[in-house]
Amino acid sequence: MSITVVGSIAFDAVETPSGVRERMLGGAATHFALAASLLDGVRVVGPVGDDFGDAEMDVLRTRGTSVDDVERVAGGKTFFWKGKYGWDLNTRETLDTQLNVFEQFAPKLSEASRACDVLFLANIQPGLQLEVREQCAQARFVALDSMNLWIDIARDQLMEIIGRVDCLVLNDEELRQLTGKPNLISAAHEVLTWGPKLVVAKQGEYGSALITADDFFALPAYPLHEVVDPTGAGDTFAGGFVGVIAKHIDRATDRRVLRNAMAYGTALASFNVEQFGTEGLEAIKAAQVRERVADLYGFAHFEPIDVELID
Ligand code: AMP
Fold first, then answer.
1. Cα separation of 305 and 175, whole Å?
2. pLDDT tens by residue, 84-110
3. Which CA distances in Å does 290 have to 92, 270, 295?
4. Distance (Å, rounded) from C-alpha 208 to C-alpha 177?
5. How high is the pLDDT of residue 1?
6. pTM of the full structure
7. Ligand 1: which of 60, 91, 105, 123 to mutate, most ligand atoms within 8 Å of CB?
8. Phi, psi for residue 195 in degrees, rounded to 5
9. Is the C-beta atom of 277 inside 6 A of ligand 1?
10. What's the distance, CA 291 to chain centroid?
11. Which of 91, 231, 237, 272 to mutate to test the pocket of ligand 1 (most atoms within 8 A of CB)?
Protein backbone atom coordinates (compact mmCIF):
# COMPACT_ATOMS: atom_id res chain seq x y z
CA MET A 1 0.00 0.00 0.00
CA SER A 2 1.23 3.52 -0.56
CA ILE A 3 1.37 6.20 2.11
CA THR A 4 1.26 9.93 1.37
CA VAL A 5 2.31 12.38 4.07
CA VAL A 6 1.95 16.14 4.15
CA GLY A 7 3.53 18.16 6.93
CA SER A 8 6.49 20.28 7.83
CA ILE A 9 9.91 19.65 6.34
CA ALA A 10 12.13 21.78 8.49
CA PHE A 11 15.37 23.01 9.84
CA ASP A 12 15.30 22.66 13.63
CA ALA A 13 17.43 24.28 16.30
CA VAL A 14 17.28 22.25 19.48
CA GLU A 15 18.70 22.53 22.99
CA THR A 16 18.48 19.50 25.29
CA PRO A 17 20.47 18.57 28.42
CA SER A 18 22.65 16.44 26.11
CA GLY A 19 23.69 19.28 23.83
CA VAL A 20 22.78 21.92 21.30
CA ARG A 21 22.15 21.74 17.57
CA GLU A 22 21.82 25.05 15.72
CA ARG A 23 20.46 23.68 12.47
CA MET A 24 19.53 20.14 11.60
CA LEU A 25 17.02 18.44 9.36
CA GLY A 26 13.64 18.07 11.06
CA GLY A 27 9.96 18.53 10.51
CA ALA A 28 6.94 16.38 11.21
CA ALA A 29 6.75 14.91 7.68
CA THR A 30 10.47 14.12 7.73
CA HIS A 31 10.32 12.18 11.00
CA PHE A 32 7.15 10.39 9.88
CA ALA A 33 8.67 9.35 6.53
CA LEU A 34 11.87 8.03 8.11
CA ALA A 35 9.79 5.70 10.28
CA ALA A 36 7.03 4.71 7.83
CA SER A 37 9.59 3.92 5.12
CA LEU A 38 10.66 0.88 7.18
CA LEU A 39 7.20 -0.53 6.55
CA ASP A 40 5.88 0.70 3.22
CA GLY A 41 6.31 3.08 0.28
CA VAL A 42 6.06 6.74 1.30
CA ARG A 43 5.53 9.93 -0.73
CA VAL A 44 6.29 13.24 0.97
CA VAL A 45 4.34 16.39 0.08
CA GLY A 46 5.55 19.83 1.18
CA PRO A 47 7.65 22.84 0.23
CA VAL A 48 11.28 23.63 1.04
CA GLY A 49 13.36 26.71 0.31
CA ASP A 50 16.46 26.92 -1.79
CA ASP A 51 18.46 26.69 1.44
CA PHE A 52 17.47 22.99 1.48
CA GLY A 53 20.45 21.07 0.19
CA ASP A 54 20.90 17.82 -1.72
CA ALA A 55 22.20 16.14 1.44
CA GLU A 56 18.93 16.87 3.27
CA MET A 57 16.91 15.71 0.25
CA ASP A 58 18.88 12.45 0.28
CA VAL A 59 17.91 11.87 3.92
CA LEU A 60 14.24 12.36 2.98
CA ARG A 61 14.76 9.73 0.25
CA THR A 62 15.89 7.13 2.81
CA ARG A 63 14.54 3.63 2.02
CA GLY A 64 13.05 4.80 -1.25
CA THR A 65 10.73 7.57 -0.04
CA SER A 66 9.54 9.61 -3.01
CA VAL A 67 10.32 13.33 -2.93
CA ASP A 68 8.65 14.04 -6.29
CA ASP A 69 6.07 16.22 -4.52
CA VAL A 70 8.61 18.12 -2.41
CA GLU A 71 8.48 21.55 -4.01
CA ARG A 72 11.66 23.65 -3.99
CA VAL A 73 10.54 27.29 -3.81
CA ALA A 74 13.06 29.56 -5.52
CA GLY A 75 14.09 32.41 -3.22
CA GLY A 76 12.15 30.82 -0.34
CA LYS A 77 13.33 29.73 3.09
CA THR A 78 12.61 26.33 4.60
CA PHE A 79 10.30 26.12 7.66
CA PHE A 80 12.30 26.76 10.83
CA TRP A 81 11.56 25.70 14.41
CA LYS A 82 13.57 26.26 17.57
CA GLY A 83 12.89 24.51 20.87
CA LYS A 84 14.46 24.02 24.27
CA TYR A 85 13.85 21.09 26.63
CA GLY A 86 13.90 21.16 30.44
CA TRP A 87 16.31 18.91 32.36
CA ASP A 88 13.78 16.09 32.69
CA LEU A 89 12.91 16.36 28.96
CA ASN A 90 9.18 16.42 29.76
CA THR A 91 8.82 20.14 29.26
CA ARG A 92 9.55 21.85 25.98
CA GLU A 93 9.47 25.52 25.16
CA THR A 94 9.06 26.67 21.56
CA LEU A 95 11.43 29.61 21.10
CA ASP A 96 10.77 30.33 17.41
CA THR A 97 8.51 29.15 14.59
CA GLN A 98 9.03 30.52 11.08
CA LEU A 99 6.52 29.12 8.57
CA ASN A 100 8.47 30.64 5.63
CA VAL A 101 7.62 28.65 2.44
CA PHE A 102 4.53 27.17 4.15
CA GLU A 103 2.89 30.62 4.23
CA GLN A 104 2.28 30.65 0.46
CA PHE A 105 2.04 26.89 -0.01
CA ALA A 106 -0.85 25.60 -2.12
CA PRO A 107 -0.51 21.81 -2.29
CA LYS A 108 -0.88 20.35 -5.78
CA LEU A 109 -0.39 16.62 -5.46
CA SER A 110 0.83 14.46 -8.31
CA GLU A 111 -1.42 11.68 -9.57
CA ALA A 112 0.67 9.13 -7.66
CA SER A 113 0.40 10.98 -4.32
CA ARG A 114 -3.34 11.48 -4.77
CA ALA A 115 -3.84 7.77 -5.43
CA CYS A 116 -2.55 6.80 -1.96
CA ASP A 117 -4.39 4.21 0.13
CA VAL A 118 -3.22 5.73 3.37
CA LEU A 119 -2.82 9.44 4.11
CA PHE A 120 -1.06 11.01 7.08
CA LEU A 121 -1.80 14.67 7.69
CA ALA A 122 1.19 15.52 9.86
CA ASN A 123 1.22 18.65 11.96
CA ILE A 124 0.79 21.76 9.80
CA GLN A 125 -1.87 24.46 9.28
CA PRO A 126 -5.28 22.69 9.31
CA GLY A 127 -6.23 24.59 6.12
CA LEU A 128 -3.42 22.84 4.25
CA GLN A 129 -4.42 19.50 5.75
CA LEU A 130 -7.95 20.08 4.41
CA GLU A 131 -6.67 20.86 0.91
CA VAL A 132 -4.63 17.65 0.84
CA ARG A 133 -7.52 15.61 2.27
CA GLU A 134 -9.71 16.80 -0.59
CA GLN A 135 -7.15 15.74 -3.19
CA CYS A 136 -6.82 12.23 -1.69
CA ALA A 137 -10.52 11.47 -1.86
CA GLN A 138 -10.06 7.71 -2.26
CA ALA A 139 -7.70 7.14 0.69
CA ARG A 140 -8.90 4.18 2.76
CA PHE A 141 -7.31 5.28 6.03
CA VAL A 142 -6.54 8.87 7.02
CA ALA A 143 -4.77 9.90 10.23
CA LEU A 144 -4.14 13.41 11.53
CA ASP A 145 -1.77 15.07 13.99
CA SER A 146 -1.94 18.66 15.20
CA MET A 147 -0.75 20.83 18.09
CA ASN A 148 -1.76 23.49 20.61
CA LEU A 149 -0.83 26.34 18.21
CA TRP A 150 -3.54 25.30 15.72
CA ILE A 151 -6.09 24.64 18.49
CA ASP A 152 -5.45 28.26 19.57
CA ILE A 153 -5.43 30.04 16.20
CA ALA A 154 -7.26 27.81 13.68
CA ARG A 155 -9.79 25.87 15.72
CA ASP A 156 -12.66 25.94 13.18
CA GLN A 157 -10.56 24.52 10.36
CA LEU A 158 -9.04 21.98 12.74
CA MET A 159 -12.52 20.80 13.77
CA GLU A 160 -13.49 20.52 10.11
CA ILE A 161 -10.52 18.32 9.22
CA ILE A 162 -10.90 16.15 12.35
CA GLY A 163 -14.41 15.35 11.12
CA ARG A 164 -12.92 13.98 7.91
CA VAL A 165 -10.29 11.55 9.24
CA ASP A 166 -10.32 8.01 10.66
CA CYS A 167 -7.72 8.55 13.36
CA LEU A 168 -6.62 11.49 15.50
CA VAL A 169 -3.12 11.34 17.03
CA LEU A 170 -2.53 14.04 19.63
CA ASN A 171 -0.60 14.74 22.85
CA ASP A 172 -2.83 13.99 25.79
CA GLU A 173 -2.78 17.57 27.12
CA GLU A 174 -3.77 18.79 23.66
CA LEU A 175 -6.69 16.33 23.64
CA ARG A 176 -7.87 17.87 26.89
CA GLN A 177 -7.39 21.40 25.49
CA LEU A 178 -9.23 20.53 22.26
CA THR A 179 -12.26 19.01 23.97
CA GLY A 180 -12.31 21.07 27.17
CA LYS A 181 -12.52 17.78 29.08
CA PRO A 182 -9.98 17.25 31.88
CA ASN A 183 -10.24 13.45 31.78
CA LEU A 184 -8.34 11.70 28.97
CA ILE A 185 -10.90 8.94 28.39
CA SER A 186 -13.87 11.30 28.20
CA ALA A 187 -11.83 13.66 25.98
CA ALA A 188 -11.03 10.81 23.58
CA HIS A 189 -14.64 9.62 23.56
CA GLU A 190 -15.78 13.16 22.76
CA VAL A 191 -13.48 13.11 19.70
CA LEU A 192 -14.97 9.74 18.67
CA THR A 193 -18.37 11.48 18.35
CA TRP A 194 -16.86 13.96 15.82
CA GLY A 195 -15.98 11.34 13.17
CA PRO A 196 -12.68 9.54 13.92
CA LYS A 197 -12.90 5.84 14.82
CA LEU A 198 -9.56 5.84 16.64
CA VAL A 199 -7.82 8.24 18.99
CA VAL A 200 -4.17 7.87 19.94
CA ALA A 201 -3.06 9.91 22.95
CA LYS A 202 0.71 10.50 23.02
CA GLN A 203 2.02 10.67 26.57
CA GLY A 204 5.73 11.35 26.14
CA GLU A 205 7.96 9.19 28.34
CA TYR A 206 4.83 7.44 29.68
CA GLY A 207 4.05 6.02 26.26
CA SER A 208 0.76 6.17 24.42
CA ALA A 209 -2.85 5.06 24.66
CA LEU A 210 -5.26 3.92 21.97
CA ILE A 211 -8.95 4.60 22.49
CA THR A 212 -11.78 3.31 20.30
CA ALA A 213 -15.50 3.07 21.04
CA ASP A 214 -15.03 -0.41 22.55
CA ASP A 215 -11.32 -0.75 23.35
CA PHE A 216 -8.53 0.78 25.38
CA PHE A 217 -4.88 -0.18 25.05
CA ALA A 218 -1.85 1.52 26.57
CA LEU A 219 1.86 0.87 26.06
CA PRO A 220 4.72 2.37 28.04
CA ALA A 221 7.50 4.07 26.14
CA TYR A 222 10.41 1.70 25.47
CA PRO A 223 12.61 1.95 28.60
CA LEU A 224 15.85 3.73 27.73
CA HIS A 225 18.72 4.77 29.98
CA GLU A 226 19.40 7.89 27.98
CA VAL A 227 17.20 10.17 25.92
CA VAL A 228 19.20 12.66 23.86
CA ASP A 229 16.56 14.55 21.85
CA PRO A 230 12.79 13.85 22.00
CA THR A 231 12.07 16.06 18.96
CA GLY A 232 9.96 14.19 16.44
CA ALA A 233 9.18 11.24 18.72
CA GLY A 234 5.46 11.70 18.10
CA ASP A 235 5.87 11.81 14.32
CA THR A 236 8.17 8.79 14.37
CA PHE A 237 5.59 6.93 16.46
CA ALA A 238 2.93 7.91 13.92
CA GLY A 239 5.13 6.61 11.08
CA GLY A 240 5.37 3.18 12.70
CA PHE A 241 1.71 3.12 13.71
CA VAL A 242 0.36 4.19 10.31
CA GLY A 243 2.92 2.02 8.50
CA VAL A 244 1.64 -1.18 10.17
CA ILE A 245 -1.96 -0.17 9.39
CA ALA A 246 -0.99 0.43 5.73
CA LYS A 247 0.39 -3.10 5.56
CA HIS A 248 -2.89 -4.51 6.92
CA ILE A 249 -5.29 -2.08 5.31
CA ASP A 250 -8.05 -4.68 4.92
CA ARG A 251 -8.04 -5.13 8.69
CA ALA A 252 -7.18 -1.55 9.63
CA THR A 253 -9.48 -1.39 12.64
CA ASP A 254 -8.80 -4.94 13.85
CA ARG A 255 -7.76 -4.86 17.52
CA ARG A 256 -4.71 -7.08 16.92
CA VAL A 257 -3.46 -4.95 14.03
CA LEU A 258 -3.93 -1.76 16.05
CA ARG A 259 -2.08 -3.10 19.08
CA ASN A 260 0.82 -4.20 16.90
CA ALA A 261 0.79 -0.81 15.23
CA MET A 262 1.18 0.73 18.71
CA ALA A 263 4.17 -1.54 19.40
CA TYR A 264 5.96 -0.64 16.15
CA GLY A 265 5.31 3.08 16.70
CA THR A 266 6.70 2.81 20.23
CA ALA A 267 9.81 0.87 19.17
CA LEU A 268 10.61 3.27 16.33
CA ALA A 269 10.12 6.33 18.53
CA SER A 270 12.71 4.91 20.95
CA PHE A 271 15.39 4.91 18.23
CA ASN A 272 14.47 8.48 17.30
CA VAL A 273 15.03 9.89 20.79
CA GLU A 274 18.42 8.21 21.28
CA GLN A 275 20.10 10.65 18.92
CA PHE A 276 19.66 14.21 17.69
CA GLY A 277 17.25 14.94 14.84
CA THR A 278 17.00 12.29 12.16
CA GLU A 279 20.28 10.51 13.02
CA GLY A 280 18.66 7.62 14.90
CA LEU A 281 16.21 6.63 12.18
CA GLU A 282 18.56 7.10 9.22
CA ALA A 283 20.76 4.18 10.19
CA ILE A 284 18.20 1.84 11.72
CA LYS A 285 17.94 -1.77 10.56
CA ALA A 286 14.85 -4.00 10.56
CA ALA A 287 16.41 -6.53 12.98
CA GLN A 288 16.90 -3.82 15.63
CA VAL A 289 13.27 -2.79 15.34
CA ARG A 290 12.07 -6.40 15.64
CA GLU A 291 14.14 -6.87 18.80
CA ARG A 292 12.54 -3.90 20.56
CA VAL A 293 9.05 -4.84 19.41
CA ALA A 294 9.63 -8.31 20.90
CA ASP A 295 10.68 -6.70 24.20
CA LEU A 296 7.49 -4.62 24.18
CA TYR A 297 5.30 -7.72 23.85
CA GLY A 298 6.93 -8.91 27.05
CA PHE A 299 6.37 -5.64 28.91
CA ALA A 300 2.69 -5.43 28.05
CA HIS A 301 1.64 -8.97 28.92
CA PHE A 302 1.49 -10.83 32.19
CA GLU A 303 0.17 -14.21 33.21
CA PRO A 304 -2.77 -14.22 35.60
CA ILE A 305 -2.31 -15.74 39.08
CA ASP A 306 -4.95 -16.42 41.70
CA VAL A 307 -5.07 -13.65 44.26
CA GLU A 308 -7.53 -14.08 47.05
CA LEU A 309 -9.35 -10.87 47.85
CA ILE A 310 -11.09 -9.90 51.08
CA ASP A 311 -14.61 -8.49 50.99
P1 AMP B 1 7.21 16.58 17.84
O2 AMP B 1 8.43 16.52 18.70
O3 AMP B 1 6.65 15.24 17.51
O4 AMP B 1 6.20 17.52 18.38
O5 AMP B 1 7.66 17.18 16.43
C6 AMP B 1 8.67 18.11 16.30
C7 AMP B 1 8.80 18.53 14.86
O8 AMP B 1 7.65 19.30 14.49
C9 AMP B 1 10.03 19.40 14.63
O10 AMP B 1 10.92 18.74 13.76
C11 AMP B 1 9.48 20.72 14.04
O12 AMP B 1 10.17 21.09 12.87
C13 AMP B 1 8.02 20.43 13.75
N14 AMP B 1 7.16 21.54 14.18
C15 AMP B 1 7.24 22.28 15.31
N16 AMP B 1 6.28 23.23 15.34
C17 AMP B 1 5.55 23.08 14.20
C18 AMP B 1 4.42 23.75 13.62
N19 AMP B 1 3.84 24.81 14.21
N20 AMP B 1 3.94 23.31 12.43
C21 AMP B 1 4.52 22.24 11.84
N22 AMP B 1 5.58 21.58 12.30
C23 AMP B 1 6.10 21.98 13.47
1. 36
2. 999 988 889 999 999 999 999 999 899
3. 30, 13, 9
4. 17
5. 66
6. 0.96
7. 123
8. 145, -50
9. no
10. 22
11. 231
